[in-house]
Amino acid sequence: MQRSTLTHADGSLLRNGQPHRVLAGSLHYFRVHPGHWADRLRRLAALGLNTVDTYVPWNFHERTRGDIRFDGPRDLDRFVRLAQAEGLDVVVRPGPYICAEWDNGGLPAWLTGTPGMRLRTSHGPFLEAVDRWFDALIPRVADLQADRGGPVVAVQIENEYGSYGDDHGYVRHIRDALVVRGITELLYTADGPTPLMQDGGALPGELAAATFGSRPAEAAALLRARRSGEPFFCAEFWNGWFDHWGEKHHVRSAASAAEDLGGILDEGGSVSLYMAHGGTNFGLWAGANHDGDGIQPTVTSYDSDAPIAENGALTPKFFALRDRLTALDDAAPRLPLPADPPLLAPRELPVTPHAGLLDALRAVSEPVAAAAPLPPSFEELSLASGLVLYEAEPLLPPGDHEVTVTGLHDRAQVFVDDTPVAVLDRESASFTVSGTGARVRLALLVENQGRINYGPLLGQGKGILGGVRVERRLVHGWTSRPLPLDAWTPRDTARAMAAAPSDGRAGFATAVLSVAEPADTFVALPGFGKGFLWVNDTLLGRYWEIGPQTTLYLPGPLLRPGDNTLTVLELERLGDRLALRDRAGLGPSEEYVETFD
What we know:
By secondary structure, the chain is of the alpha+beta class. An eight-stranded parallel barrel has the order 4-5-6-7-8-9-10-12, surrounded by five helices.
C-alpha cells in the first residue's frame, strides 16, 4: 500500500515521517495570465511559503457539456509543474464546488440549469455528472502526486460543505471518487470553525481543517476538542477580502493579518493564506453573493488585499507576513525578493465611437425563440453569461401604464421604440410607459452580473424568470438575442461596430495603444458608465462607474509590440478617452475581518 507524503500522528503533521508544517498560499492559475504563472509562484516562494494551493473550476474547463479542455490558461499540469520547479508542494482543491467568488461556484451553467437538478447532494444525475468530470480531471491530478514524482501532497474533499448542507453520503461519494481514481496523498475537509459547519462537512477518518480570518486559538480549541489526534490546519486564513460593485474596497491591515497568522503558528498550526496572490476575474468569471435582500456582484479585480498585489507587486502585508513565516525555527532560508513588475508609462488614449448600442447588438446576434409566449431564461437559450436582448411589440392603450418585470436576474435596461426609459434591478421592477393606442417596440437588455457562488441560491437562473406585464396583462410574443460576449471573435465585434453610425450615447468605441515593449498597465475609463473592455482579442472584464474598482488590470502578455486595439462596449454613456495608470484604482477602503459573529 502506498504511503502518503503527508501523514499525522499524535496531533502532529509529518512529511515523510518528519515533523512538518504546511505553509501554503492560495494562487489560482485561472485568475493569472499563463505568462505570469512562473513569476507569481516565485513571489509566493519568496514570501516564505513551501506550498501553493489552487482550486480547479469545473466550468472553466468544461464550458459546454462534453468539451473538456486542459490547454492554454486551463493547463493545470503546466501550472503544477511550474510550482514544482520553484520548490513548492501543491495542494489541489477539485471541488466539484469551489465557491471562490467564481461564477456559479465553479459549477457549469449547463449543469445547474438542468430542470430538477439537486446540487451538492446524493441526487443521482448530479453524482453522474460529477463522476464524468472527475474521470477527466482526477487521473491528471493523481499523475502529479508526490508518490509519482510530482509535487501534489494533498487533495481537498469538496469545499466548505458544512456551510451548505449535511448530506454526508454525498461528501463520502466525493471522497471515494477521489480514491478510486488514484488519489493516494493526504485527503482533508475544510469548513468554518463552528460546530454546525464542522458537523456538516467533516468526515470520520479524514483530516478536518478549518477556514477563518480571526480568533485562531478558538478555532484550534474547537478542532482539537473534536479531533484530539489531528494536527491543527487552517485551510484558508483570510488575510484580506473580496469586493462587490457598489460597496467599499475591503482591506485588512498588515499588522492585523500578521497578528492572527502568528496566532495560528503559535498554536503549532499549518496554514494557507487566502489569498497569497488574488489575481483577476478576467472576462465574465466573477461570481456574486446574495445578502437576502439583493444580489451583490463581485468586481473584476480579485486583488483581495493580498500580500502579492494583482500585478505582482510586493505590498507592506507581504513583508509583515514574511517576517512571521521566516522567523519559524524550521523556516526555509529567505529567498531573494523579485523586483516589482515593470509598468507602461501613464498616458491618455482618445477613443473613436462606432455603432450605437441596439443597432450593434442586433447586428451581431441572430434572433431566436421568435414569438415565444414568455421571455426564455439564459439557461433555455443555452447561454452561460453575457447579455440577452429581449424584444416584443405590445399594444398600449392611450395613457400611462405600469409595466412590471418579475424574476429579473439581474439587471435590465429598458427601451421603448429604441429610446431608453428605465434601468431595472432584480426580483421585481416596474416603470411607466405612455401609450397612444398603437404597438410599441419594447426592448429589455438583460445582463447576467455573475452567478451566485455561495449559499442556498447557488445555481439560480438568469434572465427574465417570470414575465413582463402591462398592468395585469402579460406581454407575449418575445424574440430573444443571446449575446455571449466572452465567446465573441474579432469578426463578431467588427460586425457589430460596422452596423450603423454612433448615436453618441452608448455602444462600441475603440482606442489604439501603441507600445514598443509590452508591460502591465491599469486602464481607467473616465466618463464611461458601465460596460466591458476587450484588449485585442481578449475580454478583459467588466467596469462600472459605481466602483469601488476604477481601473482594470491589463497584463503585459495580452499586448504585442506595435499597435493594440482596446474595444469598449458601453451600455449607458460613452466617454471620450481611456487612461493608462501606473497603479490600481480599487476605490475607497474599509477594514474588514471575518469573525463568524
